[in-house]
Amino acid sequence: MHEMALTESIVDIVSDEARKQGFAKVRIVRLQIGAMAHVEPEALRFCFDAVSRGTVAEGATLDIRRLPGEGWCLDCGKTVPLEERFGACPECGRRHVQMTSGDELRVEELEVD
């Protein structure tokens, strides 16, 4: 379960921001997770509840926004939706698609007190 390590990194980011910006409590942590990031949102929520105990993020809501996969087809010269990593272009069927979105995991926003 790599979600535990990912969650520890998220709580570290939140704690660092609390020290830098001087807030004491986080109400909502908004995350962006790409559809092909191989992250299970429910496992992340479960881990977040455990890892955030005793931190500024304890009791915060984890708001997860899933981002669709997207790529640039080198043959078509178009931005196309991707359902899988290294998938074929839905326009021409070739596999010269460079992924441009869908593997992100980022802290997008914090709501704090």
Automatic annotation (TrEMBL):
Ni(2+) binds at H2. One of its GO terms (molecular function) is zinc ion binding. PROSITE patterns: HYPA. One of its GO terms (biological process) is protein maturation. It comes from the Bacteria. Involved in the maturation of [NiFe] hydrogenases. Required for nickel insertion into the metal center of the hydrogenase. The keyword Zinc applies. Belongs to the HypA/HybF family. Zn(2+) binds at C73, C76, C89, C92. The keyword Nucleus does not apply. Pfam families: HypA (PF01155). Coiled coil: none annotated. It comes from Methylocystis parvus. Keywords: Metal-binding, Nickel, Zinc. This is Hydrogenase maturation factor HypA.
